[in-house]
What we know:
3-stranded antiparallel sheet; de novo design (two linked rop proteins); 6 helices; elongated; alpha+beta; CATH 2.40.50.140
Amino acid sequence: MAGEIIKTQGIVLTVHPWSRTSHIVTWLTPDHGPVTTLVKGAVRPKSAFLGQYDLFYTCDILYYARATADLHALREVTPCTFRENLRGRWRETALAGYAAGLVKDLAPANAEAAAWFSFLDSLLTRLENTGVTRSCASALQELVRLEMEILQLAGWAPDFSNMDPRAEWTPFAIDLGRCGEGARTVRLAPRTVAVLMRPDAPGYALETVKDAVRFLGVFLAFHIERPPDIRRALVSLIQE
């Protein structure tokens, strides 16, 4: 890969300034996972890159893969999907940004990233196609859904197969990822597990959805090394 010209598709995960006129853009690609590129002269008045990329766009990109650094040189970019409907819907935009951050940190840098690319593309399309800004309950269910899908992709999904649906609650070992006693054990009710296993189903009580969100917060904090304040701020925001 190093020293080659790479042509692929990319979903924009982050855009940061590099200088007065340049950007650093991180993309999720289906064949190389997260890729970070330097876009020289990105905001110059006559730049060929002006308006060609923004957060959550899907683009065809051409970049030069540097052999000695993780910052590659973007040569060409052509937008394919703009997702303009995400802009102005604050809960959807917040969820999209949170998912992009998780994908940037967790997606593999090889062909296995194709499943992550498909996941993010589907999620962004789902968020974009919401007719109006989601309610608090709907946004929290979407958060549960996207986190469970990411845990599945990462191979860390909690195992509820031994859950007793007749019991009022069952001990769940956070550290082991399954029902039973462990070093970090919580009580898990069957109604909460129902939300975790089918977060897209209708009719859940808001408090039950919140229980599922709280459980995943503990689970993710134990299994993923990521600042918990990011998720805490998201949950607070979408409940406003």
